[in-house]
């Protein structure tokens, strides 16, 4: 099992920056990929960015390319891994609950989810 806990959400103004963090504990060594999803009121959950834990390849939603950066690190010989999402030039449409997700090796979908952190972009 893997536990995911997000932090870093808040209320910011358009054009501001914000960095989200996700702490993964349990058995993160078995995770093959991690991602950030978001869900705005009345909309479906969408994947914002993803990263492979081995190799570090990343992928972004078109709407955030060039403004958001996903990164991950893990302490050697540790049962913890961290995931980050640095968000720059935030727009009001970025307002949503942001979720951290992780995928076990061999899984096609993300099978671990955090509780979410609210990001509100408003003037």
How would you describe this structure in keywords?
4-stranded antiparallel beta sheet; 123 residues; mainly beta; 55% strand; 7-stranded mixed beta sheet; globular; 0% helix
Q: Name the poorly predicted regions.
A: none
Output mean pLDDT: 92
How is the biggest beta sheet arranged?
7 strands, mixed
- Global outline: globular
Helix tally?
Answer: 0
**N-to-C order of helices and strands:** EEEEEEEEEEE
Oligomer: single chain
- Tally of DSSP β-strands: 11
Proportion of helical residues: under 10%
**Which class do the helix and strand fractions yield?**
mainly beta
Terminal CA distance = 40 Å
Q: How would you concisely characterize the structure shown here?
A:
With 123 residues, the chain is an all-beta fold. The chain is 0% helix and 55% strand.
SSE order and pairing:
Layout (H helix, E strand, L loop, with lengths): L1 E6 L2 E3 L5 E9 L4 E9 L6 E7 L5 E3 L7 E7 L5 E8 L8 E9 L7 E2 L3 E5 L2
Parallel strand pairs: 2-11
Antiparallel strand pairs: 1-3, 3-8, 4-5, 4-9, 5-6, 7-8, 9-10, 9-11
Q: How would you characterize this protein structure?
A:
By secondary structure, the protein is mainly beta. 0% of the residues lie in helices and 55% in strands. Strands 2, 4, 5, 6, 9, 10 and 11 form a seven-stranded mixed beta sheet that branches. Strands 1-3-8-7 form a four-stranded antiparallel beta sheet, with no helix packed on it. A hairpin with a 7-residue loop joins strand 9 (96-104) and strand 10.
């Amino acid at each position: 099992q893997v536990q995911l806990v997000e932090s870093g959400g808040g209320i910011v103004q358009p054009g501001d920056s914000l960095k989200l963090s996700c702490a993964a504990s349990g058995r993160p060594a078995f995770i093959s990929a991690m991602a950030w999803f978001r869900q705005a009121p009345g909309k479906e959950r969408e994947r914002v960015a993803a990263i492979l834990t081995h190799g570090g390849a990343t992928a972004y939603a078109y709407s955030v390319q060039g403004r958001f950066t996903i990164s991950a690190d893990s302490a050697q010989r540790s049962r913890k891994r961290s995931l980050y999402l640095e968000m720059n030039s935030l727009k009001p449409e970025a307002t949503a609950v942001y979720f951290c997700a992780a995928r076990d090796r061999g899984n096609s979908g993300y099978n671990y989810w955090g509780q979410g952190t609210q990001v509100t972009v408003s003037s």
